[in-house]
Amino acid sequence: MDFGVAPQIADVVRAAADSQAMGYLPSADRATTARATSDWMAGTFGWQVPEEHVFLLPDVLSVLRVTVQRFTPPGSPVIVPTPAYMPFLTVVPALDREVVEVPSILDDDGRYRLDLAGIDAAFAAGAGLLVLCNPWNPVGRVLTREELAEVAAVVDRHGGRVFSDEIHAPLVLDDRPHIPYASLDERTAGHTVTAVAASKGWNVPGLKCGQMVLSNPDDVAAFAPYAADTGDTVGLLGARAATAAYSECQDWLADVVGYLRGNRDLLLELAGGIPGLRVSPVEGTYIAWLDCRDLDLPGGPATFFRREAGVALTDGSSCGEAGEGFARFVFATPRPVLRRALEQMRDAVAGG
User: Fold this and answer.
1) Is residue 233 situated within a structural domain?
2) What pTM was estimated for this model as a whole?
3) Segments in 83-235 forming alpha helices (H)
4) Residue 306 backbone dihedrals phi, psi, to 5 degrees
5) Are residues 161 and 302 in the same domain?
6) What are the residues whose beta carbons fall under 8 Å from the beta carbon of 74, sequence distance 6 or more?
7) Fewer CB within 10 Å, N side or C side of the chain?
């Protein structure tokens, strides 16, 4: 986000510098961050997870790597519903696993839903893991309890596993609650590895501290021999910042969510002034998914808007084949900048 950080987090970094605390992460800090994560999930989502089931890793993608390597059958393909967060499509092949893209269903109102039949077929063909992103980057959905239960039925039928990326859980923009997938019932708790982090909600991705939440005691036991080595690269500043975020910075987060809600509404208003452009409803995250297919922009949306409007977007094709003709727009920026960007995009389309 093009915002700052909470004062409490800035204080943590300053205090570490003042005390020259730039060494490895002490075990006491590691335990404190795990406890803060557990308390935050219980207080925010009503999900009770023992702190001993929370492991610190550098980021969510590190959790994905561990999930693929430690909790899926060797060589089994990985299902990625698309449009997807771009690295999901590159991290998995780097682990010598096949990505099975399952294009999601785009309804007439621009809202996406998972293709359960496609996911079912991919599991039946031998896939071992489903990558579930909720809130869903890049399309902005916050999946309902009913939708999550439908996913669980498919996964359970095939004895599959789920990697649930919930890094945007703090950034739900409407009244619909975020529901941790693993918290649904015993089935989902048993087959899920959950990834959370303070990095998106509190704007500290560079401090590199994510959390892997294991809701199956057997998974905890299986991972225990690898936990120390896997978590060695977590930084002291990241762990302390995450502790502060989860424990002390809820008011700051509430202000950010309120500002993002206003940005989302302005984006929808101004995007309505660009004929042919459609925006998927944004229920969570700070990302808008722009349907530019009817604009027929030369070179594709991202290339066109960078060249003609001076606005940098991510081309939807980076999010999978289902993203062709779309663009990913981060709207976590000061409102005058957001307005200027959309006005320049409007003028570029009109001039084209």
Assistant:
1) yes
2) 0.97
3) 88-94, 116-124, 145-158, 186-191, 217-230
4) -70, -45
5) no
6) none
7) C
- Specify whether 245 is located in the same domain as 255: no
Look at residue 1 and tell me if it is in a domain: no
Q: CA-CA distance, 3 to 205, in Å (whole number)?
A: 12
Count of the separate structural domains present in the chain: 2
Q: Which domain holds residue 242?
A: 7-249
Q: Do 277 and 236 fall into the same domain?
A: no
Spell out the per-residue pLDDT of the chain, length 352, in tens.
999 999 999 999 999 999 999 999 999 999 999 999 999 999 999 999 999 999 999 999 999 999 999 999 999 999 999 999 999 999 999 999 999 999 999 999 999 999 999 999 999 999 999 999 999 999 999 999 999 999 999 999 999 999 999 999 999 999 989 999 999 999 999 999 999 999 999 999 999 999 999 999 999 999 999 988 887 889 999 999 999 999 999 999 999 999 999 999 999 999 999 999 999 999 999 999 999 999 999 999 999 999 999 999 999 999 999 999 999 999 999 999 999 999 999 999 998 6
Question: Which strands make up the sheet holding 326-330, listed edge to edge?
Answer: 278-279, 287-291, 326-330, 314-315
Of the residues 249, 284, 317, the one at which a domain ends: 249
Residue type, position 160, single letter: G
- For the domain that residue 263 is a member of, what is the CATH number? 3.90.1150.10
Q: Is residue 112 part of a domain?
A: yes
Contact 332, 1 (CB under 8 A): yes
| Residue 226 and residue 79 share a domain | yes
